[in-house]
Amino acid sequence: MSINDQKKSTNSVLKSQKIIIHGRVQGVGFRPFIYNLAHQNSLDGWIKNTNNGVEIHVTGLDKNHQNFIGLIQTNAPQHSVIRSIEVEDIQLITFLNFEILPSKEGTENQIELTPDFGVCDICVEEILNHSNSRLNYAFTTCTQCGPRYSIIEQLPFDRHTTTMACYDMCLRCESEYQNSSDRRFHGQTNSCPDCSIPMWLYFQNKLDETNPERICEKVIEAWSKGMVVATKGVGGYLLTTSASNQESVKHIRKIKHRESKPFAIMCPDIKYVHDNFHIDQKEEVFLKSSVAPIVLLQPKNTSTFLGQIAPGLDKIGVMLPYTPLFHLLLNKYSKPIIATSANMTHDPIIYEDKEALIRLSEVDFILTYDREISFPQDDSLIAFSPFKKKQITLRRSRGLAPSFQQSFSFPTDKTILAFGADMKGTFAYCTNTQVYLSQYLGDLGHFEVQQRTEIMIERFIGLFKTKPDIVLVDKHPDYFSTRLGQDYSVSNEIPVCHFQHHRTHFGAILSEHDLWNNEFLILGIIWDGTGLGDDSHIWGGEFFIKENSQISRVGHLKYSSHIAGEKMAKEPRLSALSFSEEISEVSNLLKEKFTKQEWENYLLLSKKSNLLTSSMGRLFDAVASLIGLCDVNEYEGQAAILLEQAALRFVKHGSLDAEPFSFTIENGVVDIKSMLRQIAQQKPEIISGEIAFKFHITLVEIIRRIAEEHKVNHLAFSGGVFQNGLLVDLLFHKLENDFSLYFHQELSPNDENIAFGQLALYINSHSS
Question: pLDDT per residue over 231-256, tens digit each?
Fold first, then answer.
């Protein structure tokens, strides 16, 4: 028998296989995809969701098995992510056909959670098509779009395990659900006008309308009159109003107690965005993606969109309608609206209907519907650096959380819960080597956020039916997240590990780029506002080196006095006073920013302070105050934003090169007093933008000097300072040819990545 005859014979043999696929394979149309693929390849058997992913049993010719596996890998649904495929030959089984079996629930869940998806283009076409049965239906979904994470109550993902369990499909929807050629085949969130989710419109807290079409008409009329409508979205309630009505924007500021922090707007469509904003291809791709985040863009006409919406800023957060309801409303209104989370400043987003009716009494209308939210989320926020268009994730929430597209697995047999930090509250969960990162929860310095965090952690753990073996917390004893983790460890009788804040940032960037096992040295540049150091001082301008698996601190910004506790982060003038102590030229500039009594008191506090800081975030504040941009922050990070903006205005039509200010480095300690002295001595005709730009250039040169001193060619960056797009671009412009640069991509550089970094440090310190 020839070799070809042997192959033909082998390929003609019937065989049965068990296939288990791990990854994001639930809630993405994976079972319908496999069903149709099996039929196309003449394979009989079944598929079902399990606690491990999806399980498939198939019988057919060997050649069809081979083709089947290959097509699974190459043609999987667009939102799916296949981590691994286990294939096992089993005893021959005879099946009559291929079918989708009911999901199998187990004692432990080890599947990847699927984030919420923005409405797809086909569903949008349907709700606007006068000949379609879903015309104007506000909850139209299919297997490729709609809520997932926000409505899950149990696993695996099926209709009966979501908050849609109480809704039975009508005959038409059931027919679509059972039809293998329909794009709603096994679509778990399927509904239509005949089995619709009820909507209600309240006016001044009294039920006003229940007819969906009349509700839309009244909402549009309200926007046209400058009224405020609290509208339920996928992850919670948004306050919405006309973006062009300055008085209604002021009204929202009053409701939220938010004096000047910028709002986001929702535009009717991408054409409107192109007509009114500067936008490049990367920004457009994100805007139109299933994530549907807010993207920071620069208006073509600043007088139209800034003003009350983003006072004093050059960019504004823009998003497109991401639900059928918003598409219906914006399509008819055809103008942009303010779309900001419905909560008071520092509170978490409101997501429960009863709470909305109680707490949003100041709004004119409340638009709600009867699909409950299990996991509330703010809108994700993305920016791109101004010149090189590097992605910077500012807030990782709806559409991104809780999945993490890691290209590697954490080698651990433990279930681990990491509590993160306080300023940007998130938690991380690792089970069966898979990592889950929670949505942004808020500032844990506030009681309501603390309560929300406890609820979300409890609810999240409940999904997996697996109790943690260990908890991880920040080293700062006064963080709420630290105390919560310690309490959890005591009540559950499991160990707790503490990690230094900035080493954790470094661990996060190393793991995101899978750099732990590399033999080359890596310099970690970890710059942020605050974090408790190993010496009990406040760190934030740090340099670390990873050699093998060891992390060592090799440099930092020279210590200055930490003044007035948390007040220092809120008043950049205090940072200017601290960093410029004993520099007479600077003192003369600063005195006018204080009353005589304040000046004397703060000087005394500075001299007596036993608490020191190396914070780069506070240095940004100091420089912003010195050049007259901001003395008191009206919202977090305002001074740093204004400093970056001033520098960008200066280089808008110029070069990315300039001479840095002077500084010294001795034994790894970066002394910037000479820089501050030079800034104070600048001639009056030197504009603040030029000083701001030279400050950014100086930071790049500091990094170069430290890297060259330690003979390091690989640089990794983390910490809130690297939300600064201009700084990121300058680092690439100046250093890319000489060094390998690593920045966060999927993760935010700010404290949202701390929980992930805690996992990274723990697992890499225990992997041996």
Answer: 999 999 999 999 999 999 999 999 99
Burial of 567 (0-12, 13-18, 19+ CB in 10 A): exposed
Spell out the residues 6+ positions from residue 208 whose beta carbon is closer than 8 angstroms to its own: 201, 202, 218, 365
Determine whether 750 is an active site residue: no
What is the percentage of the chain residues whose pLDDT exceeds 70?
96
Residue pair 229/363 in contact (Cβ under 8 Å)? The answer is yes
Please report, to the nearest 10 degrees, the dihedral formed by the alpha carbons of residues 39, 43, 45, 47 taken in order. Answer: -60
What is the rounded CA–CA span in Å between residue 512 and residue 369? 39
Q: In degrees, to the nearest 5, what angle opens at C-alpha 166 toward C-alphas 162 and 167?
A: 100
pTM as predicted: 0.93
Distance from C-alpha of 555 to C-alpha of 64, rounded to nearest angstrom: 60
Assess whether 190 carries a catalytic annotation.
no
Amino acid at 511: S
Residue 612 to residue 578: CA distance in whole angstroms? 10
What is the mean predicted confidence (pLDDT) over 719-729? Answer: 98
Active-site hit among 24, 31, 503, 618 = 31
Q: Which helix (H) or strand (E) holds 16?
A: strand 14-24
A 10 A CB-CB count for 737 gives 7
Q: Reduce the secondary structure of 365-414 to three states and give it as a string.
A: EEEEECCCCCCCCCECEEEECCCCCCEEEEECCECCCCCCCCCCCCCCCC
Please tell me which residue in 41, 49, 343, 724 is annotated as part of the active site.
49
For residues 248 and 259, give the distance between their C-alpha atoms in angstroms, rounded to a whole number.
14
Structure confidence by residue, pLDDT tens digits, 13-28 = 899 999 999 888 888 8
Closest CA to 189 of 114, 271, 301: 114
| Mean pLDDT taken over the chain | 93
Mean pLDDT of 222-226: 96
- Check pLDDT > 60 for residue 6: no
Give the DSSP H/E element, type plus range, for residue 122. helix 121-128
State whether the Cα torsion 603-605-606-608 is positive or negative.
positive
Q: Which residue has the higher pLDDT, 80 or 720?
A: 720
Alpha helices in 56-111 (DSSP H): 62-75
* Distance of alpha carbon 717 from alpha carbon 731, whole angstroms: 10
Structure tokens of 245? 């009505």
| Residue 687: other Cβ atoms inside 10 A | 14
pLDDT computed for residue 406 by the predictor:
66
Q: Could you tell me how many residues make up the chain?
A: 768
The runs of H, that is alpha helices, within 513-654 are 567-570, 572-579, 584-590, 596-608, 616-626, 638-651
